[in-house]
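lol forgot to send this yesterday, sorry. struct tokens for the thing we talked abt
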């Protein structure tokens, strides 16, 4: 794998290779890189999990993370994304992790010779989030075939929904959507269903964050009305299918997408997703830097 930009570039074999390797790493089967490697994590949008998770993954692999803070960088003097990335290449980085508000920002980075791992592009893709989600589902069910997954909420703004829909379909799962009409995405392939029906029939309830920052002037729902209509309430939790799990990429709007008391409930794998994220990012980095350790 030369870059990881979108889930559309991965075939089922690639996804399963990354999952199996992440599982082996989680079981302690990995060696840090023996030779010196340098990665810079260029985050132009806020992040807690993805950035910290990459930093942890790099540290465990013995990779030096070269610090970058967009708010104290020459981006403020007008430097372009390409020139920023090219600079990191020139000073010796072996790979870059990039998150940017512009969808498909990576189209501007063709001149780079080092790999780019997409940490999230606008409303486009979030491939490492999708891979850690897939690992978490596979850990629980041991297969994707025949699983029914509902993605609920702010579909049109969700790069997580887009990436997971593309991957889950390839892997043999059925994906349905639920949520407000205004946030539907016509380009995403899948039936829209009533959330009350979905909670009873789906194996995976994947809640998506209401992305207030991407709504501009559009009026949002009140927290209470959104939660009552589209959120995972205590009542809906009690009607979930046996063995079904709750996922959320986080950060969570407590009391909106999900009742705060359910975030660490027995069916929730939300913090397991975050834990798996480190192992999956180690797996991706190993693949990208073409080393078995
Ligand atoms: N899930 C996710 O991408 O979280 P952060 O925005 O905190 O990185």
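and heres what i got for the seq, position by position
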């Amino acid at each position: 794998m030369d870059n990881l930009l979108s889930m559309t570039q991965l075939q089922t074999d690639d996804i399963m290779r990354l999952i199996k390797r992440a599982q082996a790493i989680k079981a302690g089967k990995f060696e840090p890189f023996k030779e010196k490697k340098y990665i810079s994590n260029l985050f132009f949008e806020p992040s807690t999990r993805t950035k910290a998770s990459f930093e942890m993954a790099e540290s465990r692999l013995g990779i030096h993370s070269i610090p970058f803070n967009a708010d104290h960088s020459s981006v403020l003097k007008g430097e372009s994304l390409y020139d920023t990335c090219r600079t990191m290449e020139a000073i010796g980085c072996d790979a870059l992790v990039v998150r940017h508000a512009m969808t498909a920002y990576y189209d501007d980075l063709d001149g780079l010779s080092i790999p780019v791992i997409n940490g999230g592009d606008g409303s486009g893709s979030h491939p490492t989030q999708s891979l850690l989600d897939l690992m978490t589902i596979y850990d629980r069910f041991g297969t994707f075939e025949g699983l029914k997954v509902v993605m609920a909420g702010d579909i049109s703004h969700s790069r997580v929904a887009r990436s997971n829909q593309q991957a889950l379909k390839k892997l043999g799962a059925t994906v349905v959507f639920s949520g407000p009409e205004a946030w539907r995405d016509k380009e995403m392939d899948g039936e829209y269903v009533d959330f009350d029906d979905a909670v009873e029939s789906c194996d995976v309830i994947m809640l998506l964050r209401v992305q207030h920052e991407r709504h501009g002037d559009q009026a949002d729902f009140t927290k209470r009305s959104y939660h009552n209509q589209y959120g995972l309430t205590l009542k809906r939790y009690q009607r979930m299918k046996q063995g079904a799990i709750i996922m959320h990429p986080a950060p969570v709007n407590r009391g909106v997408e999900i009742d705060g008391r359910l975030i660490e409930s027995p069916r929730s794998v939300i913090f397991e997703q975050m834990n798996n994220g480190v192992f999956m990012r180690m797996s991706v980095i190993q693949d990208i830097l073409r080393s078995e350790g």
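The first helix runs from residue 12 to 26. anyway ping me if u want another try
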